């Protein structure tokens, strides 16, 4: 007779321990997420549908990755979602937001040590409708919409788009094209030049004199 007790058939397995070692499940989730975002776009893709495609419980996705925006960031091999950084910057108010935004943008991109898939998507957006859609929806929902909501101006939506275009242009020139001397410029120099431009887009008067 074995001295090892048989497992209780009614006992629940240690779910947390199983998930911590679930590297295969994580790979399936990421693969399903990439396919689902590409097929349905960022807004229509849901954690539940991704979980179904990966054949896992939706709670497993929340355990491994958190919210949908964080799952998207992981699926695209990004450092993180912009939700927390932009929220923290907006909490400090609109005064000086332009320089803070440029500096944070540079810090995040320089810390990556490689060109993010988000940038690759930006470069290929003209050739791939799915890439363009994912990129546009993600930036709109997790970055631009938060800026627009904080601006008290009738042209807030246009201002938000202009800020996004300014930063995306900086990313392409500095990190994809490696255009010099922009690619080698230090953060203080770029913040001094671009911070005022972004601040003007955020809170400056509109070209027509209103706003």
The N- to C-terminal Cα distance equals 85 Å
Average per-residue pLDDT, rounded, comes to 80
State the order of secondary-structure elements, H for helix, E for strand: HHHHHHHHHHH
Profile the largest sheet.
none
Strand content: under 5%
Low-confidence stretches: 1-13
Put simply, the count of helices is 11
Task: Calculate Rg over CA atoms.
Answer: 21 Å
**Class by helix and strand content?**
mainly alpha
Shape type:
globular
Helix content: 55-70%
Number of strands: 0
Concise overview:
The protein is mostly helical and 211 residues long. The protein has 11 helices and no strands. Mean pLDDT is 80; it is low at 1-13.
Structure description:
- This protein has 211 residues and is mainly alpha-helical.
- The protein is built from eleven helices and no strands.
- The protein has helices spanning 15-20, 23-44, 47-54, 58-65, 68-75, 83-91, 97-112, 117-124, 129-150, 156-176, 187-203.
- The model is unreliable at 1-13 (pLDDT under 50).
Lay out the secondary structure:
Layout: H1 15-20, H2 23-44, H3 47-54, H4 58-65, H5 68-75, H6 83-91, H7 97-112, H8 117-124, H9 129-150, H10 156-176, H11 187-203
List keywords for this structure.
211 residues; 69% helix; disordered N terminus
